[in-house]
Amino acid sequence: MVNITAKLKRVGNSLGIIVPSNVIDSNNLKEGEELFVNIQLNEVSSVGQMLADARKHKLNFKKSTQEILDEIDRDSD
């Protein structure tokens, strides 16, 4: 499996991605071959937003929000 980061580019009325030549060469890819593409958007959420989303889905935590934030602060030092 190969992971790349790519920006969408206009191709006619569609959008496409460019596969870098080093990935093409190292995997012996040829024009017309089918590839499986897993799309993952580069979205950044705040910790607060993640906790709010978890509460919305009724997920329960053993630690309070403040305890979790304090732990994140300690781990980021």
Structure description:
With 77 residues, the protein is mainly alpha-helical. The chain has a domain at 47-76. Helix content is 36%, strand content 8%. Strand 1 and strand 2 (14-16) form a beta hairpin. The chain is elongated. The protein starts with 8 loop residues before the first strand and ends with a helix. 0% of the residues are buried. The model has no long low-confidence stretch (mean pLDDT 83).
Provide tags for this entry.
single chain, 77 residues, mainly alpha, two-stranded antiparallel ribbon, 3 helices, 2 strands
Helix/strand structural class? mainly alpha
End-to-end separation:
33 Å
Question: How many DSSP-defined strands?
Answer: 2
Q: How many DSSP helices?
A: 3
Major sheet characteristics: 2 strands, antiparallel
Radius of gyration, in angstroms, nearest whole number: 20 Å
Write a concise synopsis of the structure shown.
The protein is mostly helical and 77 residues long.
Layout of SSEs?
Layout: E1 9-11, E2 14-16, H1 21-26, H2 47-56, H3 65-76
Antiparallel strand pairs: 1-2
